[in-house]
Amino acid sequence: MTQTILLAGATGHLGQALGQALSDAGYRVRALVRREAQRAIVAPWAAQAVMAQATERGQLDDVVGDADIVLSAIGITLQNDGATYDAVDYAANRNLLDAALTEGVGHFAYVASLGGERMRDLPMTAAKEKFVDVLNAAPIRATVLRPNALFHDFEALLAQAMTGRIALVGDGLARLNPISERDAAARIVAALAAPERDVPFGGPEEWTWREIAETCFRILNKPENIVTLDREKIAATVEMLPQLTPETVHGALTFHLTMMGQDSLGPRCGADRLADWLAARAAAMKLEAAA
Length: 291
Ligand SMILES: NC(=O)c1ccc[n+]([C@@H]2O[C@H](COP(=O)([O-])OP(=O)(O)OC[C@H]3O[C@@H](n4cnc5c(N)ncnc54)[C@H](OP(=O)(O)O)[C@@H]3O)[C@@H](O)[C@H]2O)c1
Description:
Layout: E1 4-8, H1 13-24, E2 28-33, H2 39-42, E3 48-51, H3 61-64, E4 69-72, H4 85-102, E5 107-111, H5 123-137, E6 141-147, H6 155-163, E7 166-169, E8 175-176, H7 181-192, E9 198-201, E10 207-208, H8 209-220, E11 226-229, H9 231-244, H10 247-260, H11 274-290
Parallel strand pairs: 1-2, 1-4, 2-3, 4-5, 5-6, 6-9, 7-11
Antiparallel strand pairs: 8-10
Helix pairs in contact: 1-7, 4-5, 6-8, 8-11, 9-10
Bound molecules: NADP nicotinamide-adenine-dinucleotide phosphate.
């Protein structure tokens, strides 16, 4: 029988890839959007688009309704609408979970971050892990998905390379295996049908941050100019920033500086190659800049 899945965070980079992969796998996808104009984003693969604010508990019972699964990829990344991680990454997901429990949904799946359980001191991952704790204690089948950095995160490095310089933490030799949104979506769809509870994963290739930076310059045909930031000074900055700046400033910054300074490797899956994505994105960015 066809299963209905409520997909929250459907408009995001990962959410859109998830919507397509779920629809291709035979799920009936009900996509949650928060603005009328976003219905067009999900139209290619959603059987139904429903509009509600996940931050408002009272708006969610009808939205969840008879869904068999709720899958949430809701979280603050670069959104700048003043909301806190606690209000979105924790509370909005908790509202969805409460609605799922009220409506008798059997399965709740949530996209957290690779290694987040070891970074509870950072505001972004603290809010996510607080929700993971609630989800794991709830009387519902739970699946926690933990992707490594998604390809679109590296647009920021390309943008830096375009301006002529990339800044890295330490020697830039921390290792990671980023994953494309499409490969991450495929891994998540497979996990939904398996008895997995906590699913860490990364892409097929291991890189250092320095290798990614060098690739950005090579693709853009620009001279390599990498500056390195002292690891100890960065660690002190990461500790101080929350006292000196609002969360909208320090939240993403402390997360990215921390990630650049430590290895982040998940079980490998997928096939998409980061260099291909960087080349395609650089070509698109050049066209956008020329327009
Ligand atoms: N990017 C990565 O490398 C990475 C790696 C591991 C885990 N993750 C996690 O995976 C999830 C998806 O990541 P992504 O890269 O696809 O992020 P994204 O493109 O920014 O998508 C985030 C989604 O959350 C929604 N959202 C944000 N603030 C909201 C609010 N106040 N109320 C309701 N919805 C809100 C967004 O809706 P709008 O489109 O309306 O803004 C969007 O659908 C996030 O939780 C992220 O932390 C990301």
